[in-house]
Write a structure and sequence with these properties.
The structure is a single chain. The protein is an all-beta fold and 124 residues long. It is built from no helices and eleven strands. It has strands spanning 3-6, 9-12, 17-23, 32-38, 45-50, 56-58, 66-71, 76-81, 90-97, 111-114, 118-123. Strands 2, 4, 5, 6, 9, 10 and 11 form a seven-stranded mixed beta sheet that branches. It has a four-stranded antiparallel beta sheet with strand order 1-3-8-7, with no helix packed on it. Strand 4 (32-38) and strand 5 form a beta hairpin. The model has no long low-confidence stretch (mean pLDDT 95).
Length: 124
């Protein structure tokens, strides 16, 4: 499994960005897929997740602003980000992992495969 992110950049507060993650292999039907982020000096935190049945979940701090989606034909995972805030500044990673106890859980330790990351910087 290989994951490759793109689409990061620098925007002002209130701006928008869409991140993409190209995946190799039959990832979407086999794994949970998710976006995580990590700011300097902070732990990696989950942002949004899709399970193999299409169920979606979000971290509370991004609900209503971020949208996760996938295009099976293009083998691409997306993260649309709107109303960006300076606290959204981080390296963003896409990841794939197995279910735990029958569920996709948005915890970094449960994800096996990671992309190299793409930087998002939001200025005030």
């Amino acid at each position: 499994v290989q994951l490759t992110e793109s689409g990061g950049g620098s925007v002002q507060t209130g701006g928008s960005l869409t991140l993409s993650c190209d995946v190799s292999g039959d990832v979407f039907s086999s794994y949970c897929v998710a976006w995580f982020r990590q700011a300097p000096g902070k732990e990696r935190e989950g942002v949004a997740i899709i399970d193999s049945d299409g169920g979606i979940g979000y971290a509370e701090r991004v609900k209503g602003r971020f949208t996760i989606s996938q295009d099976n034909a293009k083998r691409t995972l997306y993260l649309q980000m709107q109303s960006l805030k300076p606290e959204d500044t981080a390296m963003y990673y896409c990841a794939a992992g197995n279910q735990r106890w029958g569920y996709c859980v948005l915890v970094a330790a449960y994800f096996l495969y990671w992309g190299q990351g793409t930087q998002v910087t939001v200025s005030s």
